[in-house]
Design brief:
The complex is a heterodimer of chains A (35) and B (557).
Chain A lengths: L7 H27 L1
Chain B lengths: L1 H27 L7 H15 L9 H25 L15 H12 L9 H4 L2 H31 L8 H26 L10 E4 L5 E4 L4 H10 L20 H25 L3 H28 L2 H5 L14 H14 L14 H13 L8 H21 L4 E2 L2 E2 L2 H27 L1 H4 L7 H15 L14 H30 L16 H33 L3
Antiparallel strand pairs in B: 1-2, 3-4
The chains are: A mainly alpha (35), B mainly alpha (557).
Chain lengths: 35, 557
């Protein structure tokens, strides 16, 4: 990866990763409710 | 002289605990103060702007949702700013965009109040990035931690699942606590010589005729909230060791005071809010005992130096330390920054003696010696719940805390939160040490190298952010894994604690009897200290033995 470039694929993967992890945190919230 | 400096600093912090704690209670209990005329209209304007109903209360799940949603939106905005900073304004030095993995790491770092920096601010961030993607989340992440801690305290004394309103708590924290304090501290720092400018880097010619570029920028504004909010991310790569961040012993004192002021005062505020000041002092005493012990260890270790230095006739270890601070102020700063989970440094932790270096590691592993904004108190209360449970088992009674029964659900959630911390430290450390590409990032061989990797993940998991140094962490592997470790370290504990708060809030208060196990006595303080240290040692001693302890023993061969 180089500075200065718009790396659509890398950005897509990174944002996807963050969305997934926040969804996981919400899933953990629901788990806590049931625990 | 060094010892006197430390004692005076701690005494001043101690004197401020009560008045600041009382002020925090007024802020979060929504009590009227003379400052309402100034802050009230600003807050109401913000509520109208973001569509918040001031009187709306939230149950624990709604509170968690508000925390996650607001943090996620800010995280995305920060990521976009880092990735596009080259095309955005306020970039007089023409700084390039951040690579995506580093942008992820940096955004996760600052939204979680960690402030781990795999970059050097002076050549990786534009002024716009420094202001809206670094300094701004320093306010919001600190306020988020504060809000969550306050919500948990409300849950302890509530009669129903009503933890307050996250957005109101967030705004009040920023407007009534962080902004005024930061403004005062920033003015003082400017007075002491810290730069505050939007002009680009200055070009200077040295006496030898060499051209030198001196980077500068809005440093004072960042420095003040960096410590008030226990954030820790420096404007410059060398953090508070840089003469533009921390130019004098007086600024060093203000930095230390700023780091400790709110975490210590919050523990006192806790006692008032649960209507049991003795309970607050019990937890305060527990944290103080551990803090003083760790401070003494690093202080003695650095003053004794190493056998190699002693053989050369050098007394004490000054490697990696600034002469204007000396050993004592460096030792105090090291202890404060890792107990308050700030993460800024005024000396290089990589150059501490092995036992001196063990102290910041151990404090981050325990993660409850005062701790950062709110979250430190939460982690401390997790151990209180665990201790109450263990003591309940020992005496054969249902464990209670502040009149609320601690049952299976609370213990399950507390266990998950406590166990997550070692898992997200030890598993990534093991993976990193088994990958030749990750091992290649280690600059020192042997036991010290193990400490460098262990420190990086411990710092991320504890949301501390300080770097041991000696590790080239700006690689895709370290950026992504440490980024995710920071997110787990922050949100799993927050969610579990708010769930416990929601559960406790709906429980009836049981009247204390002669058979109730008291949690506000000196005996409980001793038991709590022992349980925290035993659980910490059982979890982390093997890895510490492979790092700083083995290195220490190796010095005498």
């Amino acid at each position: 990866m180089k500075n200065g470039e718009i790396e659509v694929f890398n950005d897509f993967v990174t944002i996807g990763l963050l969305v997934t992890f926040f969804a996981l945190f919400w899933g953990f919230t629901l788990f806590c409710e049931k625990a | 002289m060094g010892l006197i400096q430390i004692v005076v600093t701690l005494l001043i912090i101690g004197l401020l605990v009560k008045p600041v704690g009382v002020y925090l209670v007024k802020v979060f209990n929504y009590q009227r103060t003379g400052l309402d005329r100034i802050f009230g209209p600003v807050e109401r304007f913000i509520y109208r702007l973001i569509g918040v109903q001031e009187k709306e209360s939230m149950g624990w799940k709604k509170y968690v949702f508000a925390v996650l949603l607001s943090n996620f939106v800010m995280l995305m905005l920060m990521y976009v700013v880092f990735r596009l900073q080259k095309y955005l304004p306020l970039n007089p030095d023409g700084i390039d965009n951040m690579p995506s993995a580093l942008a992820l790491n940096t955004a996760a770092s600052f939204i979680t109040n960690t402030n781990w920096q795999a970059y050097s601010g002076e050549n990786s961030l534009s002024y716009l990035s420094q202001m809206i993607a670094i300094t701004f989340p320093m306010f919001t992440s600190a306020a988020t931690g504060f809000a969550v801690a306050i919500a948990f305290i409300r849950g302890l004394v509530a009669r129903q699942d009503n933890l307050g309103n996250f957005y109101v708590d967030l705004v009040r924290s920023i407007i009534r606590v962080f902004l005024p304090l930061s403004f005062i501290v920033a003015l003082f720092l400017v007075f002491q010589g810290v730069p505050q400018t939007l002009h680009g880097a200055a070009d200077a010619t040295t006496l030898e005729g060499v051209k030198q570029t001196i980077t500068r920028g809005p440093v004072a504004a960042l420095e003040s909230i960096k410590h008030i909010g226990t954030n820790g991310g420096g404007y410059f790569g060398t953090n508070a060791a840089h003469p533009f961040e921390n130019p004098t012993p007086l600024t060093n004192f203000v930095h230390i005071l700023s780091m400790m002021l709110l975490p210590t005062a919050l523990v006192y505020a806790f006692g008032i809010m649960v209507k049991n000041k003795k309970q607050g002092w019990t937890i305060f005493a527990t944290m103080s005992i551990m803090f003083i012990t760790f401070l003494a260890v690093v202080f003695i270790a650095e003053y004794n130096g190493t056998p190699a230095l002693n053989n050369l006739g050098v007394q004490g270890n000054m490697e990696g330390k600034e002469v204007r601070f000396g050993i004592s102020e460096s030792a105090l700063f090291t202890t404060v920054t890792t107990s308050a989970t700030t993460g800024s440094v005024n000396s290089m932790h990589d150059s501490l003696t092995p036992i001196g270096g063990l102290v910041p590691l151990a404090q981050m592993m325990l993660n409850n010696v005062f701790g950062g904004k709110g979250v430190g108190l939460l982690n401390g209360l997790l151990y209180v719940i665990l201790t109450v449970f263990i003591c309940g088992l020992m005496v054969g009674r249902t464990p209670e805390f502040l009149g609320k029964k601690i049952e299976a659900k609370e213990i399950k959630l507390a266990s998950i939160a406590i166990l997550t911390h070692p898992v997200i430290i030890l598993v990534p450390t093991a993976i990193a040490l088994s990958r030749p590409e990750s091992v290649a990032s280690i600059l020192n061989s042997g036991f010290h190298g193990v400490s460098e990797v262990l420190y990086a993940f411990t710092s991320g998991a504890a949301n501390n952010g300080s770097a041991f140094g000696g590790l080239t962490s700006n690689t895709d592997f370290y950026n992504i894994v440490i980024g995710l470790v920071m997110l787990f370290g922050r949100y799993i504990a927050i969610i579990a604690m708010l769930a416990i708060a929601g559960s406790l809030a709906t429980k009836k208060v049981v009247a204390a009897t002669s058979g109730t196990f008291r949690t506000d006595t000196p005996l409980f303080t001793i038991i709590l200290v022992v349980i925290i240290l035993v659980v910490g040692a059982l979890t982390f001693f093997p890895t510490l033995a492979l790092g700083p302890i083995a290195e220490h023993l190796g010095m005498f061969q």
